[in-house]
Write a structure and sequence with these properties.
There is one protein chain. With 759 residues, this protein is of the alpha+beta class. The protein has a domain of 238 residues: Beta-galactosidase, Chain A, domain 5, CATH 2.70.98.40. Helix content is 33%, strand content 25%. The strands form 8 sheets. Strands 1, 9, 10, 11, 12, 14, 15, 16, 17 and 20 form a 10-stranded antiparallel sheet that branches. Strands 8-7-13-19-18 form a 5-stranded antiparallel sheet, with no helix packed on it. Strands 21-28-29-30 form a 4-stranded antiparallel sheet. A hairpin with a 2-residue loop joins strand 18 and strand 19. The two termini are 44 Å apart. The relative contact order is 0.09. Bound molecules: beta-D-glucopyranose (BGC).
Length: 759
């Protein structure tokens, strides 16, 4: 854990340049606009610890899977979130000496992320070995109003010398992925153009053949006046630069504007993509920095209008929640059904893929409540589009007859994860995809989604479970063998309670959906029956038999469900009794030791109780919480939010708050010592849930919105906004009670602490 960032309601502030924090800050201060994003790498050279990262939505590389022992069914490749062109770079050279922020004497360093208005600012003073001093103030943003362009304002003040200042803005596609199996570079140059003031590089990815054009146009001011300059243009493979040489003296202020566009063949024809890049750069240039920034502020104001959460009386909690909402809004806008929410978004390359079960289990509720219904629908349609691949994926593993196993990790529907205990065994992911359909239909009442897309997906998933269970003649029950539950600190277990519960719930929901479609869209149903060879009577009878005879591991003595068979055989030393120096376990223990321990990486049994809370009374949930929470190390970012929500439900307010802080400030305070690799974007939606579902107690009960808010004692008040079926509600919780206002023209009746109120 590291706490070097300053607290502020709207800003993230770093003061002082500490090399050991730089990679963490590069993640935290990342910018994105749904189409492209990048880590907060410096414009200038920095030879200290850094991870260069620029990412284009949907652009990936299928790196050949590297495993010692090949197993049938392994995917051919592991997708890489691809590091694309470095377009932020501006080298600075003073009287022949290059500015390297790791070598120069840097003072007054400050990095600020303005979350309210969506830009990054950095300022510092630097003294070179030759004694020359400059002050720099730079601001940049990725436009969300025009999402293929970005702009940098780079201001240098000459402090104490006269002589020559060279500024070299560049575009560099000659980059690597830190995470690459064979140290291969993934880009090949297609075309480049450079002349004084402008330059473009078009590169394509090997294998996947994505084309990307990144280009720049430069404008220069000296002491506020435009300067006509003649830059020297240089180029090499996948790289162009402009060297701008200026004669300067003490007191001069130089401002360089770098207008950039990043366009990809995801949205443009490959042939002639350079022209689309040029158009983007031209648009930015015509608009100019000040107007672009105004549009950026206005666009962010609109986003905050819809999704802000305010907290009074606790600046660190306020900053935490806004940081989470800011990053979510930077990552996914819901405009493109081919895109999804990667665990690291645009903040790092780890996790190599865009889509995990995180989207359905954690992110969907955020988008359901804070954006137009079509955004959440888009996320579901994404999986519907991948259904044929999920069926192929299951076939590769030996399943048949339309059984679908969605991949653990994917970019385009194909599995691209290659650890056997996850690829083949972490099959609970299939349940989350079904659950998201349920969640969406329950929240929006758009049950027609089932006829249009949902049922087909549910059918494929139900068929998978029906084939994946085994009938144990010894138990006379169905069991599910050889799985990994959400708790990845256990592999290849039998009867993971969560997985068994999910499987049987999926069978039940698929049956319900079949009945709905048959009654409400008979023609569509008939068409689906033919298309999928659905033998309703036979298949549903089988599903019913399985779900009513499913085995769930239990301890009668403790009166709880066990996470999996034999969980109690393990040595029961609680997390509180562990020497803290062992934590995080993943960094300090061998995998063997982790697997044999009781420690739970992330909510597992409790994840099931969170999803299906109405099936368990509070006392049952409490018993399970009291048993499992002391054994959970929360080394997955997805864990604390679920514990926070359950603790809130059980009235364990302090625990709920403790877990909230952990999820809200996970990256800001680097709880798990891994923020350097990128932020935990998908768990950020969990933070939002901790407030709205946890402290706000939001649920849908009997088709009605229900709220049971309480105010954590550390706060004066808090408020959040939710969209619910046409209504836009602002819920403000204070010491005096809860105030709900309706900012739409639709009136709504909801339950507040069990009483019906109409707003
Ligand atoms: C978690 C998974 C999650 C993945 C991506 C892993 O550490 O255990 O549940 O899907 O990260 O966020």
């Amino acid at each position: 854990m590291k706490q070097y960032l300053h607290h502020d309601e709207w800003l993230i502030i770093e003061k002082g340049l500490e090399p050991e924090n730089n990679k963490i800050s590069e993640s935290v201060f990342s910018l994105g606009n749904g189409k492209f994003g990048q880590r907060a790498n410096f414009e200038e050279k920095y030879s200290g610890p850094t991870l260069l990262g620029n990412y284009m939505a949907g652009v990936y590389y299928p790196d050949k899977t590297r495993v010692g022992w090949w197993k049938n069914g392994y995917p051919e490749y592991f997708a890489k979130v691809l590091n694309a062109a470095n377009w932020v770079g501006i080298n600075v050279n003073i009287n022949g000496e290059e500015l390297d922020l790791h070598q120069a004497k840097v003072s007054d360093f400050q990095r600020i992320l303005n979350m309210k208005e969506g830009y990054l600012n950095r300022s510092f003073k630097a003294e070179m070995a030759n004694g020359n001093q400059i002050s720099v103030d730079t601001t940049r943003f990725n436009s969300i109003a025009d999402d293929e362009v970005a702009a940098i304002e780079y201001k240098i003040k000459v402090e104490n010398f006269s002589g020559q200042l060279d500024l070299t803005p560049y575009i560099d596609f000659d980059v690597e992925n830190e995470d690459s199996n064979y140290d291969e570079k993934f880009w090949v140059e297609v075309q480049k153009e450079v002349e004084s003031g402008v330059g473009y590089v078009v590169a394509k990815t090997k294998k996947t053949d994505f084309y990307v054009c990144s280009g720049m146009s430069i404008v220069l001011l000296k002491n506020g006046q435009p300067v006509d300059f003649e830059a020297t243009s240089n180029e090499r493979d996948k790289y162009i630069e402009n060297v701008i040489t200026l004669a300067v003296e003490a007191g001069d202020e130089i401002t360089l504007y770098k207008y950039v566009s990043n366009v990809s063949s995801f949205y443009h024809e490959k042939e002639g993509i350079i022209n689309d890049g040029k158009k983007g750069v031209q648009r930015a240039l015509n608009t100019g920095f000040a107007k672009m920034l105004e549009a950026q502020k206005a666009a962010w104001a609109k986003k905050w209008e819809e999704s802000d959460i305010t907290i009074e009386g606790d600046v660190s909690a306020q900053q935490g929640i806004r940081f989470n909402i800011f990053q979510l809004n930077q990552t996914y806008t819901g405009e493109d059904e081919r895109l999804n929410i990667g665990p690291k978004g645009f903040t790092g390359e780890k996790y190599g893929g865009s889509t995990y079960w995180d989207t359905e289990a954690y992110c969907l509720p955020f988008y359901l409540s804070t954006a137009d219904q079509k955004v959440a629908r888009q996320l579901l349609v994404y999986r519907h589009n991948h259904l044929p691949r999920a069926i192929e994926n299951a076939e590769k593993l030996g399943f048949s007859d339309g059984a679908a196993l969605y991949p653990m990790v994917t970019m385009n529907g194909e599995e691209c994860h290659n650890e056997w205990e996850i690829t083949f065994e972490e099959i609970h992911r299939n349940g989350a995809i079904a659950y998201a359909i349920f969640d969406y239909v329950q929240y929006t009442a758009d049950a027609d989604y089932l006829s249009e897309y949902g049922f087909e997906v549910l059918l494929g998933i139900a068929r998978f479970w029906a084939q994946r269970v085994s009938y144990s003649t010894a138990r006379k029950q169905y069991v599910i063998l050889g799985v990994t539950g959400p708790n990845e600190y256990e592999n290849n277990v039998n009867n993971n309670w969560y997985t068994n519960l999910m499987a049987s719930w999926c069978l039940e929901y698929a049956e319900e959906a079949a009945k709905y479609v048959k009654t409400n869209a008979p023609e569509k149903y008939a068409q689906l029956v033919t298309q999928t060879n659905f033998d309703a009577d036979k298949e549903i009878a089988k599903w019913t038999d399985i779900r009513t005879n499913m085995y769930y591991p239990r301890s009668e003595e403790l009166n709880i469900f066990l996470q999996q068979d034999n969980y109690l055989d393990k040595e029961q030393i609680l997390v509180k009794d562990l020497d803290p120096k062992h934590l995080p376990l993943v960094k300090n223990w061998s995998w063997d030791r982790i697997l044999r321990s009781i420690y739970i990486k992330q909510a597992d049994t409790l994840q099931g109780m969170y999803f299906f809370e109405e099936r368990f009374d509070d006392e049952t949930i409490r018993r399970h919480f009291e048993f499992y929470e002391p054994r959970t190390v929360h080394e997955s970012s997805l864990s604390p939010c679920v514990h926070s929500i359950l603790a809130a439900k059980l009235g364990m307010e302090d625990k709920a708050y403790e877990m909230y802080v952990r999820t809200a400030r996970l990256d800001l305070d680097d709880y798990n010592s891994d923020a350097d690799e990128g932020c935990h974007i998908t768990s950020m939606a969990g933070t939002w849930m901790s407030v709205v579902k946890g402290f706000g107690g939001m649920r849908i009960k009997n088709d009605t919105l229900s709220l049971e808010p309480f105010l954590p004692k550390q706060w004066q008040s808090y408020s959040f906004k939710i969209r619910f079926r046409g209504a836009l509600l602002k819920v403000n919780v204070t010491k005096d009670g809860t105030n709900i206002s309706n900012e739409s023209s639709e009136s709504i009746t909801l339950m507040l602490h069990g009483e019906a109120v109409t707003v």
